[in-house]
Each structure stands twice: as C-alpha cells, then as structure tokens.
C-alpha cells in the first residue's frame, strides 16, 4: 500500500490536495518517512541509470551516424586513419614475408607490429603551453617526461581525453613499461570512446605480447580480427593465426 | 531523406524502443551539424561537440518523458539553447569565457533542468549498480519509472502473462534495488 502511494507521489500522479496530505503524513510518521527516503533514493537511482543508458545509446548512434558517414574527420582521426593504413601496409608486407618462413615469437610479433602514433593534439584557440610541451616531449622520444606531463594534465580533466590516454599508454610502452600502459588503454575502452576503441585493443594486445601473456594478447587481437571494418583487422588476423601455430 | 516533424519525433520518443531509437537517429541527423558548428566555432573540439550534444538530447528527452515539453519553441531551438547553456557552463568551469558566436536563435533554459547531467563519477557508480540489478529487473524498473509506461505496456513488452505479473515483478525488482541502494552508503552523496 505504501509502495503504491509513494510511487504516485514520486511520479507526480497525486492531486495537489492528495500531495499535501501525503506530505503531512510523512512529517508525522517516522517509519513512513524512512520508507519514503529509501524508495526515493531507489527511484532517483533508476532514473540515473536510465540517463546513463540513454547516453550509451546516443554514443552508439554517434558512431553509426556521424563517424561512419563523415567523410571529413577531425585532425587526429584523419591522421590516425592515414597512419593506420600506412602502418597496416608496412606491417602486412613485413609480416607476410616472415609468416611464410616460421611462426614468430611473441617478442618478434611485438617488434614487427609496434609503432607509436604521432601525437598531434587538437588545441583550442588560446593554445596551452602544456599541449606544446607534451607534443614536443613525445615527438623527441622523451617518454618519461611525456608521461609526467600527460599525467599532470589529465589530473585536472573531468573528462579525460582519449588522445592523451592513448599517448600516455604508448609512452609507457616506449619506456619499456607495458604493464603501466594497460589501465589507460582499458580506460578508453571502458569510456566507450568509439573513436579510439580499436586502437586501444590494438595496443593492449601489443602490451600483453610484450609481457609474454599470450592468452590476454589474443583476447584483444581476436576482437579486432572479428570484424573487417575494424582498424588493424588484417594485422590482427595474422597475429592470431601466428599465435595459434 | 525527408526531415521528421517535431510532432513525429516526440510521438516516436514516447513509443516502443525501435521507434524511439529511430527518433533519436533523426535528432542526430537534423540537429548535430548545427551543434557541432556552434561548439567548434566557440573553442570546442568535435569530441566536445559530441558530448555536449548527447547531454543536450538527454535534457530534452527528460522533458519529453515527463510530458513537460511544450511545442512553444521548436525542438531545434530548445536543444540548441540547452547545448549552448551546457557549453557556456563548461567554458566557465574552465575559466575560458569569451563572447559566443551564435549559430541559431536561442531561448532561456531553466538552469535546474541541466542538473540531471551526471558527472563521470556518478555515471560510473550507477553502471556498477546496474550490474548487480540483473537485466529483467533493470528493464521492468526502467519501463515503469524512466519511460513511465503503464503495467499493461510493461506486461506486453516483457511477455508477461498479465498486468498483475508485471506489477509483482516490478515490486520484487524494486525491493531488490532498495536492498542494493541501502548497501551503498556513497550513493546518496553521488545522487545529490
């Protein structure tokens, strides 16, 4: 009985008189008030969940309607796409020759396939010095410095940039610390950033190869190898084939 | 492709999930370009534009699902105005106030309506809670409290035998959610 009444109140289905009467009852009845507060918290939680689900759906629509149909990409996506094509082409030629010879070790697979991407950060007008410093450190191979700068920048970001998370992970890999790179690539995937999801799986697979953790490496390469539309599809197919030998 | 009218969009948003998804796609096709143009011209990136637009749609959908959206202004004007306010708030938070280059006419938006946009921390916490709720309970509770469907509609969508089964399921799922909520002391701070 209380559940129905509380529902009607929260869903705004009571008349003004009924609402006023219920509120007076709440003030007098401690147990009812306790029940009401818990019910209200549950109600607000499910509303919050509804909005979170709606946001996920909108991100998916964005990926379908905007990213896939957009001929004109952002600067970063355009560069990553061009780099991915070049890297895929280079990787395919080299890997194809080796594949004909013998199965490659995980370390060899890593060496054959790992290439850091060029970090070109979108800057807002009124450019920030920190962006310049990050790009410079990264480009010059000063990865320890790049790691410190990117982490410093990310600390102040409410919404952490996937570009920077990717750059941070790759900096750790370049600094021979693949285990430290993993959480950042996973964060991009957890954030369901479709722009960088494939790249994150790619570098996660490479990080686990570097750590000689074949089962975990395979998980990520198999994701990319499952769909021809994914970035690094062919490389991943070849890597999985090699790991299965 | 013919643009949908505002009435068509609102009608489909209040309908079953397939029609609602189509309506959301229409909103993207019809409105995203102008929001993207506005954000990019006003110190934002495409990533910002996508995020702000999605939050703008959430605010708009809130009005629709609560049956509070009146067609005094068009959906386009309303969503643009919401996105403009959200972007302005973000620029203020980053201490990057500049004069804005407008893309369209706008209206005043109640600031309270923007408060429903969750922080990343809140959304992550809710996603974790969602995992312990179970799929069927999640659906039933969302249909009842978020989509505001009647028990008969819920029974039809969930393939329950009748309304009473739907009502019983909703009660048991609410009880489950209350248990989860009562064991999450951090939740109250996050919801505020």
The SS-based structural class of chain A is mainly alpha
Strand content of chain B: under 5%
**Percent in helix of chain A:** over 70%
Chain-averaged pLDDT of chain A? 83
Whole-angstrom Rg of chain A: 25 Å
- Main sheet attributes: strand count, strand direction, barrel closure of chain B: none
Mean pLDDT of chain B: 86
Q: How would you describe the shape of chain A?
A: elongated
State the distance separating the first and last CA atoms of chain B.
Answer: 43 Å
Cα end-to-end separation of chain A: 65 Å
Enumerate the spans of chain A where pLDDT stays under 50 for 5 or more consecutive residues: 123-127
Helix content of chain B: 55-70%
**Secondary-structure element string of chain B:** HHHHHHHHH
Question: How would you describe this protein?
Answer:
The complex is a heterodimer of chains A (245) and B (192). Chain A is mainly alpha-helical and 245 residues long. Chain A has helices at residues 2-10, 16-28, 30-67, 75-101, 106-113, 129-139, 143-155, 162-174, 178-190, 197-210, 214-225, 233-243. Chain A is elongated and about 80 Å long. Chain B contains 9 helices and no strands. In chain B, helix 1 crosses helix 2 and helix 2 packs across helix 4. At the A-B interface, helix 3 of A face helix 2, helix 3, helix 5, helix 6 and helix 8 of B.
Sum up the structure in keywords.
heterodimer; A: 245 residues; mainly alpha; elongated; B: 192 residues; 9 helices; 68% helix; globular
């Amino acid at each position: 009985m209380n559940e129905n009444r509380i529902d009607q109140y929260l869903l705004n289905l009571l008349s003004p008189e009924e609402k006023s009467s219920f509120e007076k009852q709440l003030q007098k009845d401690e147990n009812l008030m306790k029940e009401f507060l818990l019910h209200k918290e549950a109600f607000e939680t499910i509303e919050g969940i509804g909005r979170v689900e709606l946001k996920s759906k909108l991100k998916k629509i964005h990926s379908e309607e905007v990213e896939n149909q957009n001929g004109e990409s952002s600067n970063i996506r355009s560069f990553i796409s061009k780099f991915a094509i070049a890297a895929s082409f280079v990787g395919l030629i080299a890997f194809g020759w080796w594949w004909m010879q013998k199965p490659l070790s995980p370390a060899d697979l890593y060496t054959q396939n790992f290439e850091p991407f060029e970090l070109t950060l979108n800057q807002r007008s009124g450019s920030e010095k920190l962006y310049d410093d990050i790009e410079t450190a990264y480009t010059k191979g000063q990865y320890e410095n790049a790691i410190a700068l990117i982490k410093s920048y990310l600390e102040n970001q409410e919404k952490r940039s996937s570009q920077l998370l990717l750059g941070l992970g790759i900096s750790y890999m370049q600094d021979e610390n693949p285990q430290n790179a993993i959480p950042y690539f996973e964060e991009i995937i957890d954030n369901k950033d479709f722009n960088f999801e494939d790249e994150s799986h790619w570098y996660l697979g490479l990080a686990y190869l570097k750590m000689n953790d074949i089962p975990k490496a395979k998980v990520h390469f198999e994701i990319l190898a499952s769909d021809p539309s994914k970035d690094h599809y062919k490389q991943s197919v070849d890597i999985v084939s090699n790991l299965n030998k | 492709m013919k643009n949908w009218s505002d009435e068509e969009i609102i009608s489909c948003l209040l309908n079953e999930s397939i029609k609602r998804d189509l309506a959301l796609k229409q909103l993207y096709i019809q409105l995203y370009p102008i929001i993207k143009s506005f954000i990019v011209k006003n110190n934002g990136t495409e990533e910002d534009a996508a995020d702000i637009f999605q939050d703008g749609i959430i605010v708009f959908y809130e009005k629709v699902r609560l049956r509070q959206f009146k067609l005094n202004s068009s959906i386009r004007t309303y969503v643009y105005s919401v996105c403009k306010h959200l972007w302005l708030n973000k620029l203020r938070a980053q201490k990057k106030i500049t004069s804005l280059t407008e893309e369209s006419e706008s209206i005043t938006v109640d600031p309270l309506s923007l408060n429903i946009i969750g922080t990343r921390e809140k959304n992550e916490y809710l996603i974790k809670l969602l995992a312990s709720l179970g799929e069927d309970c999640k659906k039933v509770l969302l249909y009842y409290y978020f989509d505001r469907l009647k028990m008969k509609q819920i029974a039809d969508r969930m393939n329950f035998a009748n309304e009473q089964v739907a009502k019983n399921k909703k009660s048991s799922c609410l009880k489950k959610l209350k248990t989860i909520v009562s064991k999450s002391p951090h939740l109250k701070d996050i919801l505020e």
